[in-house]
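Service request form, structural biology core

Requester: graduate student, group of Dr. S.
Request type: structure prediction, single chain
Budget code: on file
Notes: please return the result as structure tokens.

Sequence provided:
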Amino acid sequence: MNIEQLNADYGIADQLQFSLGQGDFPIIKINNAHAQAMISVYGGQVLSYRPTSAPEDLMFISEQAYYQTGKAIKGGTPICWPWFGPDPESLGRASHGFVRNRLWTVQSTSTTPSQEIKVKLGLVDTPETRDIWPHSFDLSIEFTIGSTLKIELITHNTGEQPFSITQALHTYFQVGDIAPLRVKGLEGAAYIDKVDGGVQKQQSGEIAIAEEVDRIYLGVSPALAVEDPTLNRRIEITASGSQTAVVWNPWVDNSTKMADLKDDDYQKFVCVETANAANEVIEIQSGTAYSLTADYRIVQL
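Core staff response, request fulfilled:
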């Protein structure tokens, strides 16, 4: 992608510009009246978002993240699509699908009457993707950068047959310290405990993280929150098009095994993912579309 051409076609004076980031991937830098943000065109993911009223960034990015073609960037908002988790057909395909390690196309940038900035990126099927997943699609993701961060992932079925997907916005939230952190809004919910062999359990009280956590919560509320007393803030998550949520923290052993995480990084983030996962399989008919949306707000305490 030619950075000069991207700026000529999609730049917004004094508010949005393109540049080359790590790995020479195109980066969109946004600085408006509401917030500062950075979006990677590779992976179609937010790397940074900080409202003007917030002293700390919303996002966690590993200092050892890969910025290499074919690898996912560890942190921010990676996209799991068209499946979440292991290959659902056990064909040896990569976990979490194939869009988080591809270069997306810039489709549009704009400002709203309330001076938010919208950025739309897209991916369509190619012979390569059809070898991996034999369906025709037009996938778009729209970011709205304002006093909140809104992400909308829209799947259009452009083929002649229906197809089914699972998906997730695999969001890494920066936290001050994992120990006192609490995830709220899932009290009493059933969940699949992937650490315990997929056994279904029921959440008792708020979620505290003191060990490896990898859970798919079922039938969830559209409103969740991450209470972070160390950073003196609450992250409010409002979802639509989703009835499952994933909570993940790799804890000590997995952090030390992952080359793109530092050994102590598990203390610095939690993933609370807006998803269609487990038994929430979305069937999309020919010529129709499905939207998955998450809106993130930082409230200082």
